[in-house]
Structure prediction request, 476 residues.
Amino acid sequence: MDQDNLIERSLQGDLEAFNQLVIEYQGLGYGVAYRLLDDPDSAADALQDSFIKAFRALDNYRGGNFKSWLMRIIVNTCYDHLRSRQRRRTESLDDMPVEEEYIPQLTDRSESPHEFAERQELQALIGSAITSLPEVLRTAIVLRDVEGYAYDEIAEITSAAVGTVKSRINRARGRVRDYLGKHAELLPAVYRHSLK
Amino acid sequence: MKPQHPHSIDEELVAAYVDGDVTVEERQRVENAMAADEQVAWEVNTLRQTVELLQDLPSVPLPRSFTLTEDQVEDVLIERRRRANLAAPPPHEIHTPAESAWRKFLNFLNGGDLALRNAAALAAVLLLVVTAVEFQWQQSRPGVPSAADGELSSGGAAPQAQVTAVGGAISEQTAASDGESSAQTSREGAPQEEEEPVFGVLSVSEDDQEAAAPAPEQAAPVAIQPETNAGGEQLIPDSAGPDSADQPLLTVFRYARVLLVVAVIALWLLSRTRSRSRRA
Prediction:
């Protein structure tokens, strides 16, 4: 189905048309939300809010790259959830997470339980490293290195110049590297030796 | 000790180099800097490995569908649908294909109150059943005339005779060319030819009946022969009426038919009336 046609129908009150767009982009959106928030429940809430906001704001969509327009809404909604979560954490110590959640899925069924546990720890460590970044750096590195967006797409999503995007990506990578270097025992041997 | 920043190349170029998004010239610049400065080489290599770690992160499975429900955006939906309806052309400007006569007829039949319409349909079915039973009953009793026969019985005998007489006259004309006796017969039938011959017409005037009355006597010996019995009498169906024992049953059938016809019409009209009053 033509995307412009779906948007036009959505503007006329056809919710099914908009839901076809949701189905097309929910996978990409959830991946970004999950990496930005590092929490599946928060990511789901943020993504649902994002689609509702997008439907309401569809009148303001002026053409162009719909995917970038939608991802900008998702990223901004994730920022809102991050700030809301930070406020709650400062207000109540009970809300502090006991342990980081990560995706318990096996990509290699031949690996031993020990290897599986190490891989899970490494993924959790990388997630923490991303979460430790300021919002703009976090967004840049997630969109580029985790989700594979092009520079110009990231520039459009974040409303920044391409040069700025490249700088942010480089700084974000450097900070993640430094964060991981503090937990060298969890890193692969090759990477650990390179950091020395 | 780790280097803080590569001084010979800016961070935008380093990022692009790590991503492989550089020109040949830019690539050469970075690699020259790496060769000249060990810290630059460390920086670029560790950044590249960091990117590899990030890219190895598994894709996140979708926990559920995020499609929206009407409740979540009800106010916007109402507003947009209202706007869409306002933007739509007025009904008289919408060119819809003309409704076929058959479709109009079906819509007409399907209109009205459902319960009363069903009752009318039931009455119609009963009417068919009664008619069929009556027809079967009459078929099994050839002496009992049908309702149609009864209705036409007042003028049935004479015209039937007349038709037979005319038919006889025609037969005489056909046979006239073959012999003298036939020619005589033709002369006897001549007065009939001056009038318009009527074939199989039952409803005729009294004058016609009177004119036709002598015909059977004249034409009977020649033309009616196949339809006469051994005594020369015509085989006209007996229309003397049903036996007195069958009369009540026949009357019941007739009243039932009339009642059912009235019921079908009344119920159907009532269903239409009730439907209109509800719409009003």
Remarks:
- Confidence is low (pLDDT under 50) at residues 1-6, 146-242 of chain B.
- The longest helix of chain B spans residues 247-279.
